[in-house]
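Sequence, please.
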């Protein structure tokens, strides 16, 4: 799975618009989340743990969404109420890449631009455009933030699959949780009026 196989803008695409946030803004937000260099190190260690577990992780997350009708609607055709299989598959590929990108923990202008794009793809300003589908046109911000919890909590069992101590597993899980919340917050920027973020 490579970013170049993903349609539309992709991480590191030189045509991707810059984020209105600066790396200084990002550093301040990371400090508010108690996200430090030890978390970056834990995420990078986590990459080796999860890189072979991506499909299993996605099975858990997709199982949760499939079992939650008020979430599945955002991947469904509003006329029929049926999930759009091709859309779900395209998002799944990107979601898998997002796990790996999160574990790389490279926080620069290119990452900020990509995070802004991910937020736009959840918001009515960009939802459905990448895949040219007619699913629900907007995901409410409350679900963007709420889904940080299942994405965080369900990761811990996967971290125990290699020979790491419980302290190392806890450190990776804490770093993952902070990184997910960091991104969920940033994905909400397109939802708020200028000056309110």
């Amino acid at each position: 799975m490579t970013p170049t196989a993903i349609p539309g803008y992709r991480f590191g695409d030189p045509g991707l618009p810059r984020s209105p946030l600066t790396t200084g803004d990002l550093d301040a937000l990371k400090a508010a989340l108690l996200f430090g260099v030890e978390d970056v190190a834990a995420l990078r260690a986590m990459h080796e743990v999860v890189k072979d577990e991506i499909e299993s992780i996605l099975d858990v997350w997709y199982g949760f969404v499939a079992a939650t009708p008020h979430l599945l609607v955002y991947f469904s055709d509003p006329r029929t109420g049926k999930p759009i299989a091709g859309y779900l598959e395209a998002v799944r590929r990107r979601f898998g890449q997002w796990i790996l990108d999160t574990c790389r923990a490279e926080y620069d202008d290119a990452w900020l631009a990509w995070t802004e794009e991910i937020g736009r793809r959840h918001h009515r300003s960009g939802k459905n455009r990448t895949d040219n589908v007619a699913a629900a046109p907007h995901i409410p911000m409350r679900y963007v933030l709420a889904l940080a919890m299942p994405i965080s909590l369900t990761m811990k069992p996967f971290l125990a699959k290699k020979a790491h101590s419980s302290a190392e597993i806890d450190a990776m899980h804490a770093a993952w949780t902070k990184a997910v919340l960091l991104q969920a917050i940033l994905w909400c920027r397109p939802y708020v009026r200028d000056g309110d973020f």
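The longest helix spans residues 166-187.
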